Amino acid sequence: MKNNYEVRYACSPKETKTLTTEGLRKEFLIQNLMEADTINLVYTHFDRYIVGGAVPVNTPLKLATIDPLKSDYFLERREIGIINVGGAGSVTVDGQKYDLDFKEALYIGKENKEVSFSSDSADTPAKFYINSTPAHKVYPTKKISRADAEIVEMGSIETANARTIRKLIVNSLVETCQVQMGMTELKPGSVWNTMPAHVHDRRMEVYFYFELPEDQAVCHFMGQPQETRHIWMVNNEAVISPPWSIHSGSGTSNYTFIWGMAGENLDYGDMDHCKIKDLK
């Protein structure tokens, strides 16, 4: 069993404009999240957000604290959102087991001391996608199934962005301090997500792309609306989106992505839209 972590510092719009392709990917792209019998974490200074993946195959994986937290256990001052993007599995929280099937979610509040991940089968292991944020209050742990999700249909085939949004860990369903999570599923024939694009200066965001065929890719767009950049991504990769940046993508196939947010506002609709023709 391995527990790995990496620290990323916040990057300003001015600095981002100077980055090469390699520099842009180093600052914002998160690769190799889903490795067998490993927990991989990235701690970003944007809202002290942690992005991670846990893939228990041969043994359960225990979530341990990491040095940047300066805490006795991982959730001493944090909360966590988890979505399973693999086979059936379970998360055990201070002795209480929660079964999570494909695309089911779990919110865990602060001050839970022991969290571990298990798969029902080593042949089809669970893949737990993890988002964690600082927390100021204890809220109860809660599972959110696909049936519990708030569903919104958006876009159209004509604009290549027909999609189903499933809100999973949002304040209308789960009490949280900061973390908000859900997923957007692109329908066959549609490739654009979050278009028209937007920014929300009160919250940062992370996108995790999955259900993307292995020979296909997504071009993720970021940056200030009048000075955009792009990052090519493949299946099971994530990208950090600063509060000042748009976050949108277009794939060579349809796909699904998980959005996770943190900041001072829990209102899902808190965003400043950018007109398509104004993007540069």
Structural account:
- With about 280 residues, the protein is mainly beta.
- The protein has one domain (about 1-135, about 145-280): Jelly Rolls (Sandwich), CATH 2.60.120.
- The chain is about 5% helix and about 45% strand.
- It is built from two helices and 24 strands.
- The protein has helices at about 15, 20-30; strands spanning about 1-10, 30, 40-45, 50-55, 60, 80-85, 90-95, 95-100, 105-110, 115-120, 130-135, 140-145, 150-155, 165-170, 180-185, 190-195, 200, 205-210, 220-225, 225-235, 235-240, 245-250, 255-265, 270-275.
- The chain is globular.
- The model has no long low-confidence stretch (mean pLDDT about 95).
State the gist of this model.
Helix content is 4%, strand content 45%.
Q: Which features does this protein show?
A:
2 helices, mainly beta, 7-stranded mixed beta sheet, 280 residues, Jelly Rolls, 24 strands
Could you list the spans in which at least 5 consecutive residues all have pLDDT below 50? none
Q: State the shape.
A: globular
How much is the average pLDDT?
95
> In which range does the helix fraction lie?
under 10%
Query: What is the radius of gyration?
Result: 18 Å
The main sheet comes to: 7 strands, mixed
CATH superfamily label: Jelly Rolls
Question: What is the name of the CATH class?
Answer: Mainly Beta
Strands, total number: 24
Q: Which band does the percent of strand residues land in?
A: over 45%
Count of folded domains: 1
Spatial sequence of strands, sheet with the most strands: 1-3-4-11-6-9-12
